[in-house]
Write a structure and sequence with these properties.
The protein is α/β, with parallel strands linked by helices and 245 residues long. It has a single domain, classed as Nucleotidyltransferase, domain 5, CATH 3.30.420. The protein has helices at residues 8-11, 13-18, 28-33, 37-44, 67-70, 112-130, 155-170, 180-186, 189-194, 205-221, 225-231, 233-240; strands spanning 47-53, 57-65, 81-90, 133-138, 173-178. The protein is flat, with a radius of gyration of 20 Å.
Length: 245
């Protein structure tokens, strides 16, 4: 007995994405080409940055910026932000770090990996509702001097991997990594307080860390046309149509 060849739509990537059953079919290129000039003009006035600080309690932050403003050097980073939302998602069975975690709702997920999947599901929903966007995810480097043997040590790695799969499937985002030390060194608590962006208490630190990553990313691309184009391909399309300079 020999195995039967699988249908082409099972394994052929092109066939998969052409299938009407596919949930994720729109590429960033397709999205841009399907936008009217008016819609594209509106989009470049509210470019989105989504920052994720993955862990047992995952912080997220969404900031919108105007393309015409971020091409300038003279404006302070925090003043480039037009709208801002942030929060935290429980990605553990018994995280207990946020008010709406599994325990407080009498919904113990029981296993850490199940809690991570449920948490990433919420993060996916946030990303879907705000795509297309530049998605910034905090990178993770294992420090062997401080490493422990608990499963939650690698929780950020597993969550990032789940998000990477989503971003590849969704294909209406650009993905960027940043080191945690860079964000905390550049965007300190003192700086957030001076900018009026230090919100909440110690329990909200993961949301603030996501804010740091969004602000650091914005500071890094500000005034750099090459980096802006890489982060927001819709800008390139708008320029190609003569909608912006």
């Amino acid at each position: 007995m020999i195995p039967t060849p699988p249908p082409r739509e099972w394994t052929d990537r092109k066939a998969i994405f052409q299938s009407p059953e596919m949930v994720f079919r729109t590429t960033l290129v397709d999205w841009m080409h399907n936008q009217s000039d008016e819609a594209l003009r509106k989009h470049v006035k509210a470019l989105r940055i989504i920052a994720i600080d993955p862990g047992g309690t995952t912080g997220w932050s969404i900031m919108t910026v105007n393309y015409h403003e971020i091409t300038k050097f003279g404006i302070a980073t925090h003043k480039l932000v037009d709208t801002w939302q942030h929060g935290q998602v429980d990605c553990g069975a018994r995280s207990g770090n946020i008010k709406d975690d599994a325990d407080s709702n009498d919904y113990d997920l029981g296993r850490e990996e199940i809690g991570e999947a449920a948490g990433v599901f919420v993060l996916e929903n946030i990303i879907r509702h705000n795509a297309p966007a530049a998605v910034v995810v905090e990178d993770f480097v294992l420090d062997m001097r401080r490493a422990n043997k608990s499963r939650d040590l690698l929780s950020p790695v597993r969550i990032s991997a789940r998000l990477d799969q989503l971003l590849w499937e969704l294909r209406v985002t650009t993905r960027h990594s940043q080191m945690p030390s860079s964000a905390k060194t550049a965007i300190t608590d003192d700086r957030l307080e001076r900018w009026g962006m230090y919100v909440g208490s110690q329990s909200d630190r993961h949301a603030r860390d996501a804010d740091r990553h969004a602000l650091l990313f914005l500071r890094d691309i500000r005034g750099n046309q090459k980096k802006i184009d890489a982060a927001f391909p819709a800008v390139v399309e708008a320029r190609r149509r003569g909608l912006i300079r």
